[in-house]
Amino acid sequence: MHIPDGYLGPATYGALFGVTLPFWAFASWKLNRTLKARQAPYLALGAAFSFVLMMFNIPVLGGTTGHATGTTLIAILLGPWAAIISVSVALIIQALLFGDGGITAIGANCFTMAVVGGLTGYGIYRLIAAGSDIKSRRRIVAGAIAAYVSLNVSALLTAVLLGIQPLIEISSSGQPLYAPYPLAVTIPAMVSGHALLFGFVEAAVTALVLKYFQRNEPAMLA
Amino acid sequence: MHERAEEHCCCRDFEDMTTTKKLWIGIGILALLSPLGLIIPSLFGAGGAWGEWGAEEFYKLVGYVPEGMQKLAHLWKSPLKDYAVPGHAQGLARRGLGYVLTAFIGIAFTAGFAYFIARVLGRQNKKK
């Protein structure tokens, strides 16, 4: 889901920096008001967890791979704004140090995986878990469903960003300038792997870690 | 996930640890297991993620590289491209070792960067 440099045209990656920036600003403002200094280690943990989880590539039919992101789990434990910041940090380090995702696509990748992933996952979790006891089974199920849906929404959005390129970025001779695949190719390619496999991995990771917190650190779920 | 196995062990030391310390151990275990994310795909003959090909791979796939992509693709030279230590590229075992190393490097950078942001943002709330 990490879009590399050269796949998105300037109009798209520019716009996505523009869209993501206010979310970063709002998340920072929000954390500035609510984050206590002693919670700083948790933000670091969240970023490191997301980073290392994304290294677990899982093969899928068709010779490609994918991975979970941990975004929904972090959003449940630390709140959506802390999740946006910590997953964005992981994505920025991945782009700068490891060439995983392009630097021009940092805005786009942070928008799909951190912003949309975090807010969708958190919203669905809260909706399903509303009013349930901290130690209830419903919380685990809510986390799993939220994680599955969130990852798929992120994947779909990535597919749309890639798929609109041949519509909006073409040379004077009609050749695609950036990613050449139409929506009819990008959407099935991106969504199939996430809907059939990676989404379930994301759900399982989220459910298992939530279960650990229910048993050992229930205060984190309050 | 891995914390669950730890939880059943009888050592009281682990019980007494702070939450963050336990979670850091969990992340350390994940980093040590990270080569699975390299080895398992290679057992299945799977390449990278869909839509994350470099310009060279792209050429092999479709027979040409779009003009704009050609220009942007090499905009940035990442020091540890593809989670590999430079000059350490041959053989799955050595690549796996490089993968663990870059996992720890990446964890140090992400955690450090996030911690810095959190300290700056949380500064006014220190007294709370």
Write the layout of secondary structure elements.
The complex is a heterodimer of chains A (222) and B (128).
Chain A: H1 10-34, H2 40-53, E1 58-60, E2 64-66, H3 71-78, H4 80-98, H5 106-129, H6 137-163, H7 165-168, H8 183-216
Antiparallel strand pairs in A: 1-2
Helix pairs in contact in A: 1-4, 1-5, 2-4, 3-4, 3-5, 3-6, 4-5, 5-6, 6-8
Chain B: H1 2-7, H2 12-16, H3 19-33, H4 36-43, H5 55-62, H6 67-73, H7 92-122
Description:
The complex is a heterodimer of chains A (222) and B (128). Chain A has helices at residues 10-34, 40-53, 71-78, 80-98, 106-129, 137-163, 165-168, 183-216, and strands at 58-60, 64-66. Chain A is mainly alpha-helical and 222 residues long. Chain A has a two-stranded antiparallel sheet. In chain A, a hairpin with a 3-residue loop joins strand 1 and strand 2 (64-66). Chain B is an all-alpha fold and 128 residues long. Helix content of chain B is 62%, strand content 0%. The two termini of chain B are 33 Å apart. In chain B, 29% of the residues are buried. Mean pLDDT of chain B is 84; it is low at 1-7. Chains A and B meet through helix 1, helix 2, strand 1, strand 2 and helix 4 of A and helix 1, helix 3, helix 4, helix 6 and helix 7 of B.
Biggest interchain interface, per-side counts: A-B, 83 and 73 residues
What is the number of domains of chain B? 2
What do the pLDDT scores of chain B average to? Answer: 84
Helix content of chain B: 55-70%
Descriptive labels:
heterodimer, A: 222 residues, mainly alpha, Arp2/3 complex 21 kDa subunit ARPC3, two-stranded antiparallel ribbon, 8 helices, globular, B: mainly alpha, disordered N terminus
